[in-house]
Amino acid sequence: MSEPSIMFFEVNERQGVFHRRAFLMGGLAGGGLMALGGRLAQLQLVEAQRYQKLSAGNQFNYRLTPPPRGLILDRNGVALASNRPNFRLMVSKDSKDFDVETALDDLALLVPIDAARRARLVKDIARAPKKAPVAVMEDMTWEEFSRVNIRAPELPGVTADMGEVRVYPFGGAFAHVIGYVAKVSDRDLEKAKDDPTQDQDLLHHPGFRIGKAGIEKSLDRDLRGRPGATKAEVDAQGRVVRLDPEGDIPATPGKEVRLTLDADIQNRALEVMGDESGAIVVMDIRNGDLLAMVSAPSFDANRFVKGLSGPEYKALAEYERKPLLDKVLNGTFPPGSTFKPTVGLAALTAGIDPEVRVSCGGSWYYGGRTWRCWQKGGHGSQNLHEAIKNSCDIYFYQTSLKIGPDAIASAARAMGFGSTFDIGIPGQKKGLVPDREWKKRAFKKNPANQIWFPGETPSYGIGQGALSVNALQLAVMTSRLANGKKALNPRLIKSVGGVEQPSGAAVPDLPFSMEHLAYVRGGMAAVANDVRGTAYRQSQLGLGDVQMAGKTGTAQVRSYDKVKSRNSASVQWKLKDHNLFVAFAPYDDPRYAVAVIVEHGGLGGATAGAPRAREVMRVALLKDPEIRARIERPMPLPAEPVEAAPDGSVEGAAPDDPTVGTAPTTSAPIVPASPAPGVPR
């Protein structure tokens, strides 16, 4: 039997094991305590402000507020676009259990909601993100606003507050220039989706409006400003308990935009247009400032802010006089005889002697056709001065053949035709200034028509044919001619946020001699002040010795071949000739230029265009302190009266279309003027 063995551990060894375990456990506990203490220190000291904000965020909520849109003023500080208070009603889905139909049923007891609006609201609320408000009603009355606010605790997801809405005090007078604002569309959101400079929250706000046309669109970023926020205490469901105005973040208003327009001149221009369709532009000859840009008929921009109904927009879009079209910048017309001063400059530049006379017998046979003058009996012997005064077509037929189309086109471009101008509004139409190179480009698929035929030049010489211009270009041409030196550019935006924009006079000189410009201006002075001029009766300002110089024009829109009478009294509106007039005043010290286009206004540039130009010019002159002081001086005794042009004549009317036929038999046959070298006969 073996002896049992008894094992004894060394006391010191057992104590060593115990000490190692104690140190390990103590170290772990100490590390844990240190980590916990460090985390507590981080939370309470380092990140205390952050968590304080998060805590406050659970109690308080910031609601985005759109900034007040910048004001648009005229040159004298008159508000053309401003803001006014707007009581609005909004609905948002504040929970998953939100019932749109029930909410709208409750609201229908407090404010009027028709079936069409209700159906649209159901769709809009369904598409809107959670808690994103949808505008139910704008411009609520105080009674409606009060009824909703009193019952607000009983209406989950419904809020009624006060915002701002854009307002245009002059209605349609500035509609095409200033444009309008409207709700942000799905197309706008799609365009801005990948643009980091766009505030997406602001774009989705129901009270925010974006520029859709004119200055409102082109300067939209400057006019927007920066949004702010209102601080409100909310409950666990995110519903507002009370407002905390002290915590509000103020919005930064948009920049103030000041235009060169004058509200008085602009309103008068729209007034004199009446029911007619067309455009009026007034320009300061000294610096290029645009004082009026009227397109008629116009529309009330305030209606677009609220949102037009389908039938309302359709009525505007389908009206034959096109109120939505900006005829100043986007309406192009043949200039008719208002183009003759430019042809006169081209002739003088090409070396034509202005005193060489052309015989006008009322018709001229050339190229197998009879080309007619607007004056049935003719004007007799005419030099350039008399041809401008009398608007003699025969003179300009023959003179245009002498110099050719390229010389005319070069002068036209130097006077501003065929150009667009940086006035802050994009989308201008250039019109067309034809020449031989244009003919080659336009008919590159038809080589037979790439040649400029001599028979195209006479029509070009009287502002017809392929030539087309807009009202702004006519005003620029008149201003450059009247300035006599500078190739003025128009300026519409005077300042943005107090920063002055460049003057339209900071430009090179015109490529014409001052003598030639003065000669043409003299012909235009005779148009308005010689008793035989084509617009004498309609151009008398009645402002002392202040006189206006001008040029009439009629542009036909249909052929008059085999038509017995040019009288358009009983003719359909769209078949009547366009009526044009350009002028500047005072003649001896030019200050202001005006261009008038009356679309389908009928025969004679003096019958519709000149009287309107005269009335608008009177306002511009009377507002000028220096001109007013001149007018108030005593006048000298009147000179001996001279017999005026006979009544009943159609002054400045476009000529009849050329008719194909045999040459007239006369004792002294009419010989066409020799064209310039290189011009095919």
Quick check: average pLDDT?
Answer: 85
What is the overall number of helices?
Answer: 22
Q: How would a textbook summarize the main sheet?
A: 7 strands, mixed
The third-level CATH topology of the largest domain is: Beta-lactamase
CATH architectural name of the largest domain:
3-Layer(aba) Sandwich
Measured as a percent range, the helix fraction is 25-40%
User: What gap, in angstroms, lies between the N and C termini?
Assistant: 151 Å
For CATH, the homologous superfamily of the largest domain is named as DD-peptidase/beta-lactamase superfamily
Count the domains: 2
Strand % is: 15-25%
**Poorly predicted parts:** 666-681
Class by alpha and beta content: alpha+beta
Count of distinct strands: 22
Rg from Cα: 38 Å
CATH class of the largest domain: Alpha Beta
From the spread of the alpha carbons, the general shape counts as elongated
Keywords:
single chain; 681 residues; alpha+beta; Penicillin-binding protein 2a (Domain 2); Beta-lactamase; 2 domains; 7-stranded mixed sheet; 5-stranded antiparallel sheet; disordered C terminus; Penicillin-binding protein 2; membrane; cell wall biogenesis/degradation; PBP_dimer
Describe what this molecule looks like in 3D.
Helices cover 34% and strands 17% of the residues. The chain has 681 residues and is of the alpha+beta class. The protein has two domains: 65-259, Penicillin-binding protein 2a (Domain 2); 263-562 and 577-633 and 652-660, DD-peptidase/beta-lactamase superfamily (Beta-lactamase). The strands form six sheets. Strands 2, 3, 4, 5, 10, 17 and 18 form a seven-stranded mixed β-sheet that branches. The protein has a five-stranded antiparallel β-sheet with strand order 12-11-21-20-19, with helices on both faces. A three-stranded antiparallel β-sheet has the order 1-8-9.
